[in-house]
Structures
1.
Amino acid sequence: MNEMTEGHIVSGYNNELTDLHQTVLQMRDLVREQIKSALKSLQDEDVAGARAVIRHDQKINDLDIRADDAIIHLIAKRQPVAKDLREVLAVGKIVSDLERMGDQARWIARLTIRFYEGESLPPHQQLLTDISKMAAYVDIMVDEAITAFDQLDLQRALEVMHKDQALESEFKSALRRLSTYLLEDARNVGHIADVVLALRALERIGGHAKNIAGHVVFLIRGKDMRHATLEAITEELERR
């Protein structure tokens, strides 16, 4: 292999890695937009907007498939090793988490249709307050998790993991507030059950953001700590 040919191969390999990296950033943008649009459709009682969110989920699915195909091709053709292999594996897991976030945003959009299409009485807006709060919080988590990946920022990844703990606390607080509404008027039981599912969907989005932060730790340190406690992860990063 002459120097020119070798340079061409290296350049092509780097371009493929860069394309994968950009796919993650593109999916991040689409997922954040889906979350915001799903929430807006709920706030505005906009059934048409909710249906648009459901249609647009296909864009995220298409990127997920494209990334999978690119990863298979890259591993088969380039046989990456060491950090490059970790990046390819991490990207595969990250795009899977992003695709699942899109599924949860789609579920919230379906809730809008359930609430506001037809003749049933919609829920009181007070019941939906915690959905808006949690949605804003998980949007930050998604952005910071992918920024940690983009910048290979361990500290930012750790902050996302801390935020996931705070999100869990907020979720439990929201459940307590909803139980109060239920005690005040048992006729709210149907709407409250649906709101709980929406809150659970947001909690799961936050969980996927935490997973991505764990993939960043794996990418940088080469150690899979997704199932370790936050205390163990912090200790490991500080020890190194």
2.
Amino acid sequence: MLDVFLTVDVEVWCDGWNDIDAQFPSAFQRYIYGHTPRGDYGLPHQLHQLQEHGLTAVFFVEPLFSTRFGLQPLAEIVSLIQERGHEIQLHLHTEWVDESIEPLLDNITGKKQFLRYFSLPEQTILIEAGAKLIESAGGQSVNAFRAGSFGFNRDTLRALAANRIAFDSSYNATMFGLDSGVSPEVPLVEPIECEGVYEYPMTVFHSGTRSLRHAQVTACSHREMEGLLWQALQSGRKAFVILSHSFELLNGSMNRPDDIVVARFRNLCSFLDRHRDCFQVRGFHGLTPDLAPSQPLPLTSPVWKTGLRILEQGIRRGFR
């Protein structure tokens, strides 16, 4: 049995930083509900698909936007997710720090895109503030974290430990992983313990090129994803971490569903439902860490599947 973490990062963006107070109401509807002439393809659609297939996902919710726009929109997100029985965990995009009505930190001016750009004391404060916002919005206590854009470092793990958050899923060998200070010599692909926190890295794979690719719904065809899941199971991997976003079933203009990605998400849910005797889709609450004694090589996907995905992605771009 392989532990599978189907994770969804929930974020709100105003597509720029000018006139954000006026822009926020429509941005919230786009990024959370995904309204289109064909229906809602944001959180409501994802939650429906998960319910249809009896799966529980992990929603990493970004709360710092609420320090600018108030707690009610965050509470709306929390309610949407919790009433369907899913797990809410903490996600921080520090681009919001300088937008807060009440300063989160002293002497902060201008944007700092990644959490790793803040000191250990500052990271500790921001993580504490984010966790409290989730609870104030009606969520349970969080025990897992993911840094926005995977922009973390070893201090992030120390800050999580100080906040008694036991799990992290910020390590991505395709983005900042190797220079995070966590296992700088060997890419992490399996869970480890570091600085008193259990790191559950993004699942990554080679796809016929020298570069790694992470297991994201927009980045992998369903053939690739299913093949990687079987490979991970057969090779005795401890965990498989999949990434999605609350808005990624929409096209680039966010005005209609991306039919290919919608089908990928549906096919993934169906596959995990059919094979629940092999794959346990779960969250971090109640998790007993099963750590790898050593780090294996990343998974691999055959070139022919990569070729089909490239063709599929070309079709997607043609309809943006």
3.
Amino acid sequence: MVMSKKSVAVVMGGYSDEYVVSLKSGQLIYDSLDRNLYDVHKVVILKDEWYFLGDNDKKYEINRGDFSVTLDNNEQLKFDACFNIIHGTPGENGILQAYWDAIGQKYTGCDFYQSALTFNKKDTLAVLSKYGIPSAKSIYLRKGEAINTDEIVESLGLPVFVKPNQSGSSLGISKVKEKSELLAATEIAFKEDDEILIESFLDGMEVSVGVIDYKGETIVLGITEIVPTNEFFDYEAKYEGASEEITPARIDDATRIRVEEISKRAYNSLGMSGFSRSEFILMDGIPYMLEMNTNPGFSPASILPQQAKIYGISITDLCGNEVEKALNK
């Protein structure tokens, strides 16, 4: 008896500026999944349209009632699993996951609660502080609140980072060195989100740590040192190569073990599943967490695939492991 292959949709795109990166990530996963095990399809979710890409890149609308597709011969195509590789909203903040839960569609990665929580930097760091994971000192502001620059500088010192609370591609982030620049920086951040964080400056090495659950165990794929050529690891540095990434990071064994331990603890404390990439600043050997991404970039140039390569897990196995977990949910 021939086992029928499982049907897998690689779901990419998104409603934010990051959709461009998501399409590249989706392409890598689409190319990498084992065709002996799965029938692999592409689904693109954009603000204006959700569509399935058929032969010759013909578009078919996705039926949002059950996430199915009606093909030319009136055949209904449903997916055994969706490989979620949308960066930003709606695939990284829980919206898509909650919808999939509601209609009974299986998908890769973490659940809606973990997605929503980790997309909110303030709430993530607040939860993780209960598990003994340190972060920078910060002040949280909502749009419309009075901003007392004297109090902020007195509390946090200078320089500070001003950033939108919802995590995305480092858009709207400023490094502020003078008190006089603070208000303008808050306005830039408020363009991206109604809530912002002002964080004390941590002077240390930035590292990006890939953590996944692979074959039933939480593993650290790699610790990558970020050496920005700009002031900090901003959008340009992330996506236009204005930073040097060194894997493994140039840190001593004791520090490496500490970073691995804290990264795993953060992942497990939050009940995470699937790909994740956490950013830390190492200061005096202590990792301070900045944020956790639950759907990090997965284009060939991205950090996570590079780490997997060095760790010795093929992209095919890495992606296949995600699909198998989704199918077994």
